[in-house]
Amino acid sequence: MTKPTAEEIMKRDKVIDVEDLVTHYGERMILKGISMDVREGEIMVIMGGSGSGKSTLLRHLMSLESATSGKMSLLGKNIADLSLKETYDLRKKIGVAFQGGALFSSMTVGENIKLPLREHTDLDEFTMDIMARMKLEVVDLAGFEDLTPSELSGGMLKRAAVARAIIMDPKLLFFDEPSAGLDPVVAAQLDELILRLRDAMGMSIVVVTHELDSAFRIADRITMLDQGNILMVGTPEEMKASDNSRIQNLLNRRIEEAELDPDAYLRRLTGEDTKYERP
Amino acid sequence: MSEQEAKQGPIAQRVENIGRRTMVGVGVIGYCATLVWESLYWAVLGKSMGQPVRLRAVVDQMMEIGIRAIPIVALLALAVGMMLAIQGIYTLSIFGAESQVTYGIAFSVVREFSPLITGILVAGRSGSALAARIGIMTINQEVDALSVMGINPVRFLVAPAMFAMLIMMPCLTFLSDVVGLMGGGLYVALDLKISLSAYWSDILKIISNGDLTHGLMKSVLFGVLIVIIGVANGAGVQGGAEGVGKVTTRAVVQSISAIVITDMFFAFMVTR
């Protein structure tokens, strides 16, 4: 399937809409007024270096944290207006594949995948088994339902986590660092899986990653974060063509050496610099 | 030292530190109170919110907390009962009043030792297990995973343990009462040459319903303490495997300390 153009994507409905999101961790400001959106059926990749705030943004998009200020709506619902029950009902419509899989170690793979069904539906055991096997087929893990998570390899764990994330047929799917810790071949397989989920099931997918190759392979659009601000939102082509030096540095893996004042350096070493005392 | 701190001076700094710690302490107490409240909330309103507390999960926890603890609770209760008889007879022999030992055994087993021994054992077995489980789940993002799946973690992880504890602690304590009294009885029967039936008939005359409820009520309180201390420590885990080890140890030490101190206050309030 060919990638949609930026214009085509922008005509679609928003599944996530974030306006001027500001968040703090203690007294430290992490996100400094983020505005972005994710459109129906697109793969949005959130990129940025360490400490850019991409993991924090993801936690807010999954409505796991509350923001200091700003507005956020998920699948057309304003998060701040939702009651507890409505929040839980909304979460049934999203799926998340965590970085380490986050499968429950006390349960088998099959039980893990069936958990959302068991908790949220009245389906009988036989139907749940069939649905779990169907999802395992999608992620190429058929026949592994009786193993425990500790018996799976890193790549298999992530795919099992995807199977659990899609068991309720969510409209919106989040991936946290899908390629982290995987060898290039397995990482590429996971990228293929993400593309297949969008094409075959029409899901909107948000992927947080710092892997450039993976990002450019799967992204319809990329949001580039830097120190809590958005540097740029655009298609991979627009990103490559950007003349912003910080984006080019990130894309070309160039290290930015900030010019260091010798006095400041001395203050930092002697611990007099309050900025480093209490970040 | 930062510039601001240097300006404040050491006393102001200490006062600020006390304030900071107090805030953290108040926060922890608030968190624990929320845990108890939320467990009850989900038990009552969970079904209507699509978040029922599963009977199966409660039964599983009852097995783990209660049934599997029976052998060790019984063994220690027997030993404590016998120990009380030995010490009681030794002490009372000074006044030549050995036959009054039943009073000592009856009151101390039912009012003090049974709930205390049961509480300490359950804190060691289940409080630590709960802290470790929640700690590992927090580190592995399993608690986050529950939340984003639309499953309330308190309802799913804490409420079953809380209810299992509320049911099993009095049951274990009652068992410990019977076994402890039996342990004391066996020694008394052997040493003072009185029949077991005479011993039991004395015991039943001595112990009132109030004594029994005193012990059982305390055990319920201990159960709640074990759960909230275990969960609060587990949820506050930092770092990897080492962090889990730390919170597990801390949960056990804090639960046992809380149990003993609460026991003292409870005894003071109720007996006066």
In percent, how helical is the residue content of chain A?
25-40%
Distance between the termini of chain A: 46 Å
Q: What is the strand arrangement across the widest sheet of chain A? A: 6-7-8-3-9-10
The Cα radius of gyration of chain B reads 23 Å
Low-pLDDT regions of chain B: none
The whole-number mean of residue pLDDT values of chain B reads 91
Report the sheet with the most strands of chain A, covering strand number, pairing sense and barrel closure: 6 strands, mixed
Distance between the termini of chain B: 52 Å
CATH topology of the domain at 1-93 and 171-180 and 200-248 and 257-279 in chain A: Rossmann fold
Primary descriptors:
heterodimer, A: 279 residues, alpha/beta, Rossmann fold, six-stranded mixed beta sheet, four-stranded antiparallel beta sheet, 10 strands, 39% helix, B: 272 residues, mainly alpha, 10 helices, 85% helix, globular
Explain what this protein looks like in three dimensions.
The complex is a heterodimer of chains A (279) and B (272). In chain A, the strands form 2 sheets. Chain A has a 6-stranded mixed β-sheet with strand order 6-7-8-3-9-10, sandwiched between helices. In chain A, strands 2-1-4-5 form a 4-stranded antiparallel β-sheet, with helices on one face. Chain A is 39% helix and 23% strand. Chain A has 12 helices and 10 strands. The model of chain A has no long low-confidence stretch (mean pLDDT 86). Chain A has a domain at 1-93 and 171-180 and 200-248 and 257-279: P-loop containing nucleotide triphosphate hydrolases (Rossmann fold, 3-Layer(aba) Sandwich). By secondary structure, chain A is α/β, with parallel strands linked by helices. Chain A starts with 5 loop residues before the first helix and ends with a helix. Chain A has helices spanning 6-10, 54-61, 84-91, 109-120, 125-138, 154-165, 184-201, 212-218, 236-241, 245-251, 262-270, 274-277, and strands spanning 14-25, 28-39, 43-47, 69-74, 77-78, 94-97, 172-176, 204-208, 221-226, 229-234. Chain A is globular and about 70 Å long. By secondary structure, chain B is an all-alpha fold. Chain B has one domain (52-271). Chain B has helices spanning 3-8, 10-45, 55-65, 70-92, 101-139, 142-148, 153-192, 196-206, 209-235, 241-271. The model of chain B has no long low-confidence stretch (mean pLDDT 91). The A-B interface holds A 62-64, 84-85, 88-92, 94, 96, 98-100, 102-105, 115-116, 119-120, 164, 174, 271, 274, 277-278 and B 1-4, 49-51, 136-137, 140-142, 144-145, 147-152, 156.
